[in-house]
Amino acid sequence: MQNVLLGGTIISITAIEWSIYEMLRQPRIIKKAREELDRMIGRDRWVEENDFTQLPYIDAIIMETFRLHPIATFLGPHYAIQDCNVAGYHISKGTTVLMNAWSTGRDPSTWDEAREFMPERFVGKHTEMTGSNFSLLRFGSGRRMCPGYNLGLKIVRTTLANLLHGFELKLDEGTRNEDVSMEEQYGLH
Fold first, then answer.
1. pTM, whole model, 2 decimals?
2. Cα(14)–Cα(20) distance, integer angstroms
3. Could you give the count of Cα atoms lying within 13 Å of 153 in the half-sphere of its Cβ?
4. What are the required cofactors (predicted)?
């Protein structure tokens, strides 16, 4: 149980960090998200779980974050129980198969401008992050999907929406978009 809770929160924090990183580099996204929040929620209360059906752009930001910055590069291993063919490749019985989530999220044959952060690509489209949509399969599917998926997604949605709704996120004056970095550093900065 501890792993489910820990996974759901650590992964959520990382997704929120990547979302903020991308939005700070493109302030138009913050503006559009805040306009949606003001229009649908108003300024007199915080965003709640039952509000998310009215916030497609917030969901699009989250989907685009998971597409471009998957939390895990490779999804959990699977084992072929018999010889099979997958996408024209022969997989022998007993072979361990890993799905490269990082690569599928940047595949130019699937995504227009695959390396660009564009939440609009998900607006008005029904795209699931579980199931059989292998281009955006971030949490596995079926009985072996991530058990913390629902918890993690609720944390990301609620936290990101309320950060955007309650605070004005912007770069310090004089900081250029290209100066923003997600490079890891040790110590307190």
1. 0.85
2. 10
3. 18
4. heme
